[in-house]
Specification:
It is an enzyme of class 1 (oxidoreductase). It comes from Stappia sediminis. It catalyses: N,N-dimethyl-1,4-phenylenediamine + anthranilate + 2 NAD(+) = 2-(4-dimethylaminophenyl)diazenylbenzoate + 2 NADH + 2 H(+); 2 a quinone + NADH + H(+) = 2 a 1,4-benzosemiquinone + NAD(+). It holds the Pfam family Flavodoxin_2. By secondary structure, the protein is α/β, with parallel strands linked by helices. It has one domain: Rossmann fold. Helices cover 40% and strands 16% of the residues. It is built from 7 helices and 7 strands; from the N terminus they run βαβαααβαβββαβα. Helix 1 packs parallel to helix 7.
Length: 229
């Protein structure tokens, strides 16, 4: 059985296929998960809506607790880290992470940045030893996980080699910390032209949805081939 971790981070409720002002990224993540469950109905899905219920931001107490050895933590430290522990546990359980991350002012929503800050945890998702030969940091998340990053943008031309590539801090801002903890297999798709709201938006939606369908077929087929082997 494969476990999917489905994360939404848009401040908009519902998908853009449900109502006019709905979220494009929620539309794509739901399509991905629904298609996946059609092919593999026995797989498990964990759902986390950080858009509607943002994780608490990192505080000085959080940092103090996280960098204290587990066996030396006081009760209040365990309480401060409880939400982070739950988020890390979900991540570690998942084989596929399906994250809806729209572009807000050229980067991820604050809600998703708070999520990242909670899962990048010394001793849990990355290791550190200042005396270690070579790099003092190393990833601790088990290999083999895949991140599917589904985004949306008001403007267009943010992909590699296009006019606004340098202003896109969504995919790089998500890929970098996920790779740091050991998740470097990433697939990404995005809807563009949202602010134009014309036929180009509809074409972009259709293209992204088709891309989601193709990606689900590709990933589920690779799992089936691996099981058959």
């Amino acid at each position: 059985m494969t476990t999917l971790l489905h994360i939404d981070s848009s401040a908009r409720s519902g998908g853009s296929d449900e109502h006019r002002f709905g979220s494009h990224s929620r539309r794509l993540t739901r399509r991905f998960v629904n298609n996946w469950q059609t092919v593999r109905p026995g797989d498990r899905v964990i759902y986390r809506d950080v858009g509607a219920n943002p994780p608490k931001s990192v505080t000085g107490e959080w940092i103090h607790a996280a960098f204290t050895k587990p066996e030396e933590r006081e009760n209040w430290m365990h309480e401060v880290l409880a939400e982070s522990d739950a988020l890390v546990d979900e991540l570690l359980e998942a084989d596929i992470i399906v994250a809806g991350v729209p572009m807000y002012n050229f980067g991820p929503p604050a809600q998703f940045k708070a999520y990242i800050d909670n899962i990048v945890r010394v001793g849990r998702t990355f290791g550190f030893d200042r005396g270690r030969a070579g790099a003092p940091y190393w990833p601790m998340v088990p290999a083999g996980k895949t991140l599917v990053l589904l985004s949306s943008r008001g403007d267009y031309g943010y992909d590699p080699g296009e006019r606004l590539e340098a202003q896109n801090h969504v995919e790089p801002g998500v890929r970098t910390p996920f790779a740091y903890i050991g998740i470097s297999n990433v697939h990404s798709l995005a809807i563009e032209f949202d602010e134009f709201a014309d036929e180009r938006l509809q074409e972009s939606i259709g293209s992204a949805e088709q891309g989601v369908d193709v990606l689900v077929r590709k990933l589920t087929a690779s799992l089936s081939e691996g099981q058959a082997a």
